[in-house]
C-alpha cells in the first residue's frame, strides 16, 4: 500500500487529482469508479479546474459510481446521481450516457444491482476506483458485517451511517435506510484503488483499516490485500498511523 501524506484538505485533493489526471492522460478511454461524500468534493473541483484550463479531456472516459440510496430519484438533491451531476458531470465533457450510477428508483433490488454489475462488466472493468472511508470503516455502503459481500447488492444502512449522513437531510427521518452498493468483490476487481481521507475524525479508522487485522467488521481492511492501493490523507487523518507508515 502506498501512503501519500498531504498537508491539508486542499493538498489531499490536489494530490488525488494528480493520480486521476495521470490515469486519464495515460488511458483516455479509461473507466473511473467514482465516490460521493464530502471527502471528494475538493478533488472533483480540482478536476473541473484542470478541464477548464484545457489540461484534461473526459470525452472518452466512462464512469461507474459506487452506490445510490434506494428510493431516491436522480432529481432528489440528496441522491448520489444528483451529487455527481452537480459536483462533476455537468462541468466536464464526459458523455452522459457513459456515466453509470445504480438506479435508486428501481424497486426491484436484484434487478437494479444486476444491471450495475452488468454495466461494469460491459465496460471491461474499472481501471481506477476512488474511495472515501466511512467512520465505521465502510467503503461504498459496505457496512461492517460477518462476511465480505461480493457483488453489487442492497444494504440496510447502520444507525451510525444514517447519523453521519443525516447532516445532508432536513431530518434524520428523511435519510433512506437502504442503498444499492458495489460489493467488496466488485471494488477489489478494480485495477487500481485510490482512497482519500481527511480530518481528525477519520484518524482512528484509518489506522485500523490499513494497519489492523483484515476483517469484514472493518470492510476497508480488505484493501490491504489489493495489489495496487494508494491512500492519500491529510496530516490529521494520518495522525494515528504506526511510525514510518
Ligand atoms: C457515504 C458514502 C461513502 C463515503 C462515506 C464517507 O456513506 N456512501 O462512499 O465514503 O459516506 O463520507 P465523507 O466523505 O462525507 O466522510
Lay out the secondary structure.
Blueprint: E1 2-6, H1 9-26, E2 31-34, H2 41-52, E3 62-65, E4 67-69, H3 80-87, E5 99-100, H4 109-122, E6 128-131, E7 153-156, H5 159-165, E8 178-181, H6 184-188, E9 192-197, H7 203-211, E10 229-234
Parallel strand pairs: 1-10, 2-3, 2-6, 3-5, 6-9, 9-10
Antiparallel strand pairs: 4-8, 7-8
Can you give me a brief rundown of this structure?
The protein is α/β, with parallel strands linked by helices.
Structural key phrases:
alpha/beta, binds 2-amino-2-deoxy-6-O-phosphono-alpha-D-glucopyranose
What can you see in these coordinates?
The protein is built from seven helices and ten strands. The strands form two sheets. A seven-stranded parallel β-sheet has the order 1-10-9-6-2-3-5, with helices on both faces. The chain starts with a strand and ends in an 11-residue tail after the last strand. It binds 2-amino-2-deoxy-6-O-phosphono-alpha-D-glucopyranose. The site of 2-amino-2-deoxy-6-O-phosphono-alpha-D-glucopyranose has 14 residues, from helix 5.
